[in-house]
Design brief:
By secondary structure, this protein is mainly α. About 85% of the residues lie in helices and about 0% in strands. A hairpin with a 2-residue loop joins β1 and β2.
Length: about 475
């Protein structure tokens, strides 16, 4: 115990007890002010945190509103592009298949007329019954009575009937043959008519399916314009899906770019010098990286010129003539760079073989060289194809860029909401700790508080005594 705290010499225990009593009395005297100070400090912290939490929630609401507007605007643009594409397809179908509908109508009318005429000419006309059959029947009913003249007449009649029947049958067969020929001649017209009607039916069916797709897109567009919760949820889910899918494809593209970099980094050291450095990096590595980045840029410009992507509105707004020139220029540059990479891949194989031979000569070992051209050809093919494969990075990159805005907005909203909750929680915990501090403060000075309670109890008993006696 320090000497300056010893009140009574050679009595440290009594001095410590006196100090404790003085401290307790001081705490008791300052009790109300200490309570106010503790509670006021906790209220300041809690109110500050609640104000900060409220500000974060306001920011989160504004961000949510802004994200919703951007999401609906992006969704409306995509649906408009889809509807425009469907209308272009319908226009192409109408121009291609239904543009010659008047001629098709005339052709169908001519075919139907021709078939009707041939069908009318092919109707079956049964041979008329002879008018003299009744007379023959009357003569046949005459009794012969053994007269030879009657028998001769009947034989002549019989022969005439047989000849007439044969003649009629021949004429009937001839007309039937002609009718079959007419029906056979109708078959090509029937087939042509069937093919024409099938083509028209296929076209009409395709237009009906396109119209249903357009109706579905228009319904989505109306929901987006109204800003319904269903449309927002659908667009958010679609954006999240596109974000992860495009991110996965971009990771594959990055792996391909790394392979391409390793394929041309070694031969680039022979072109720009292996001992040259730009800062801490080799000049050959930077040159190889620049070539790959230029290839990706040319691929982006090529996709923009083809109007497959819309990352650069200036390129999409060019007229068709200038856009066609840009397509040829970017493709030519990309083709030349692909050829350069193929040559570098061939040079890489030669450099690798020379380095292997040098190691073997230094180690005094006899090496074997297979002399196979398959690895060289494989490296050259990879060096030529990879630049064109990296061209298609523009498609997932566009999806990733557009969906990243929505994903970052959702993540930022979640972070702001979580921070607001944490601040409110910390404020409430601070207030609870302040109340606990007040109770701990009173626990330290429990002895004066107990004496105060007893004194107050005695005074209340004295005050109540006369009232009680008077009532008795």
């Amino acid at each position: 115990m320090p000497e300056y705290l010893i009140i009574i010499p050679d009595m440290q225990g009594l001095s410590l007890l006196i100090l404790i009593l003085l401290l307790v009395v001081s705490l008791y005297i300052a009790r109300s002010h200490a309570h106010k100070a503790i509670l006021s400090f906790s209220r300041v912290i809690r109110n500050s945190l609640r104000l900060a939490s409220h500000s974060l929630l306001q920011t989160q609401r504004r961000l949510n509103k802004r994200n919703k507007e951007v999401l609906l605007s992006t969704g409306a643009s995509e649906v408009e592009r889809a509807i425009e594409r469907e209308f272009h397809r319908v226009d192409s179908v109408v121009k291609r298949d239904l543009g010659g509908y008047p001629a098709l109508n005339r052709s169908l009318s001519d075919l139907v007329t021709k078939i009707d005429e041939d069908y009318g000419a092919s109707t079956e006309t049964p041979p008329p019954p002879p008018e003299w059959t009744k007379a023959v029947k009357t003569v046949a009913d005459i009794p012969s009575s053994g007269d030879s003249m009657v028998a001769t007449v009947l034989k002549a009649i019989h022969k005439t009937i047989i000849d007439q029947d044969k003649k009629v049958m021949d004429e009937y067969r001839k007309s039937t043959k002609m009718r079959h020929a007419l029906l056979k001649r109708m078959m090509p017209f029937w087939r042509k008519l069937t093919q024409t009607l099938s083509r028209v039916d296929k076209t009409i069916t395709g237009l009906h399916e396109r119209s249903r797709d357009i109706d579905k897109r228009m319904t989505e567009f109306e929901e987006i314009r109204r800003g319904t919760d269903t449309a927002v949820r659908t667009l958010t889910s679609s954006a999240l899906t596109q974000f992860f899918i495009s991110g996965f494809v971009l990771s594959i593209a990055i792996a391909g770019a790394i392979i391409n970099f390793n394929l041309i980094a070694l031969p680039m050291s022979e072109m720009v010098g292996g001992g040259s450095y730009i800062g801490p990096y080799k000049t050959s590595d930077i040159a190889a990286l620049v070539i790959i980045l230029v290839e990706i840029s040319m691929g982006l410009f090529l996709m923009e010129s083809l109007r497959i992507t819309k990352l650069f509105p200036v390129i999409g707004a060019l007229d068709d003539k200038m856009r066609t020139r840009m397509i040829y220029i970017t493709f030519s540059i990309l083709f030349i760079l692909a050829g350069v990479e193929a040559a570098l891949a061939f040079m890489r194989d030669i450099i690798a073989a020379d380095m292997q031979a040098l190691r073997q000569s230094l180690s005094a070992t006899q090496g074997t060289h297979s002399g196979s051209l398959i690895p060289t050809i494989g490296q050259m093919v990879m060096g030529f194809i990879l630049p064109f494969a990296l061209t298609f990075v523009a498609i997932p990159m566009e999806s990733f860029v557009h969906s990243a805005r929505t994903v970052l907005g959702v993540v930022t909203e979640g972070v702001l909401r979580a921070l607001a909750f944490i601040m409110r929680l910390v404020g409430n915990i601070t207030m609870s700790f302040s109340r606990a501090g007040v109770h701990i403060y009173d626990l330290i000075i429990f002895l004066p508080l107990g004496i105060e309670s007893l004194v107050r109890g005695g005074k209340q008993g004295i005050k109540k005594g006369p009232n009680t006696e008077g009532s008795l």
